[in-house]
Amino acid sequence: MNNKINNKIKSKAVKPGNRLFLVVADDSKELHQALYYAARRAATANGEIALFRCIEPTEGQLWGGVTEIMEAEKEQESKVLLQELSNYCEKLGAPKPRTFVRRGITSEELFKLINNEAAIRVLVLGVSIETGNPGPLINYIINNGSNECRVPITIVPGNLSDDQIDALV
Fold first, then answer.
1. What percentage of the chain's residues is helix, strand, coil (to nearest 5)?
2. What are the residue boundaries of the structural domains of the chain, listed by start?
3. Which of 6, 18, 38, 152 lies 20 to 30 angstroms, CA to CA, from 12?
4. Which residues share a beta bridge with 124?
5. Is the pTM of this model over 0.85?
6. H helices within 2-100, ranges in order?
């Protein structure tokens, strides 16, 4: 019986060159749907997950020491969030995600990452269900980012339940 279990585990192991689904780990409500979709898709397609978190510059003019403390706190919060999201992905059957933390403007850093990491094959974004506002990244892509993106973009509606997503993957 243990051989059967070991064979199943080995068959689910990620092989080099498999799809890497990139999810933006932001503070949006629709992160759940994007992450759930990507994790379930990776689990069923022998893919992997990558989590991207961007630490945006602190607004306003603060004294250097205060800015450094605030950015260090944001970085620590980002690491905790990425660990929580990684654990969640693993519970859904996906391999441990790769994580990327960048500093700068989210849209700019996102496309730099996509263009510099050849393993990334799909960008997965959740779309807000608020009328007229699909979300800042989707707005950016629609208005000027589509030329920057070298990978397909999967947009997951923010109103889908986990069961509905399971039916799609």
1. 50, 20, 35
2. 23-168
3. 152
4. 23, 154
5. no
6. 2-12, 31-44, 64-91
The tens digit of pLDDT for each residue in 108-167 reads 999 999 999 999 999 999 998 877 788 888 888 888 766 778 899 999 999 999 999 999
CATH class of 23-168: alpha beta
Chain length of the chain: 169
Tokens for 14, please give them: 């990620």
> What burial letters (b/e) apply to 72-96, b meaning 16+ CB within 10 Å?
eebeeebeebbeebbeebeebebbe
Q: How far apart are CA 26 and CA 83, in angstroms?
A: 14
Integer Cα distance of 33 and 134 in angstroms: 14
Identify which of 2, 9, 17, 6 has the alpha carbon closest to the alpha carbon of residue 43.
9
